[in-house]
Amino acid sequence: MNDVTCLGILVADIIVPVNELPEDGKLSLVSHIALYTGGCAANTGIDLAKLGIKTAIIGKMGNDGFGQFFFNEFKRFNIHTSAITVQDGLSTSASVVMLNQNGERSFLHALGANATLTMEDIDFSVIESSKILFVAGALLMPRLDGEPTAEILKHAQERGVFTALDTAWDSTGRWMEAIAPCLPHLDLFIPSIEEAQALSGETDVQKMAEVFLHKGTKLVVIKMGNKGCYIQSSLGEKHIVGTYRKIKPVDTTGAGDSFVAGFLTGILKGWDLKTCGKFANAVGTHCIMQVGASAGIKSFEEIFAFMTHNDEEVECVEC
Phi first, then psi: what are they for 13, rounded to 5°? Predict the structure, then answer.
């Protein structure tokens, strides 16, 4: 049995440190260009595996060099890959990530095989044998978003699997149209504050959470970057959990995915919500310490020790 199955997007990240783009027809030198695993399912899956969580991934890739790179990396972390579909004639999804001197990113993205992921590609036996199903990268899977994803979540929840979902930024503008069918079948909805605002139409974080709770999810956790996270449950529990702000970011790629990995780890261990939030923030903090979505993630013991030793830095507020 796997602890967590991550279903969603797999993206090869080509990361380039860029201060400014060259003029047309010109060349600029950069310090390095590197290839990393990326995409919400891959990032969260690898982070979970590095934390000692048994993990499976469901997704779709092309039969190409990027795809082989993914399989080599997943093997290195003992991730279960039998439910990944590989299809000839498709390209594995990829992004060029331009990283500025402040650690912030801009992207050029090709949907690739992620755009063709459908219900027919889903191995439900892997989901059913997991404790948690995490749908990673909703709104970037056009043939699975909306009702198909809701059906998958319902199937899992009815079989006693804890369900969680994170979103990506929706450049197509579907937003709540695609997410609303999923919310009644979610134990945990975990968007970023920017995504939560776009989905809910609210600017106050508590009101954002209440929109999602009203539509059926049991627990909302909103990622707020260097401000930490906001947690609200359907039972009325509310917390703002601050994060470790003394750490200067090197690269914020994958920070949200690493936060999810930390929070799901806390759920598996049966921690209270505040502790889950603290640990999630600690995992996210380690992510931004190094270039690449998962390179900075350390063992569970190391990150738990970091959280414990820096506890006085974190402000927690019960709302």
Answer: -100, 120
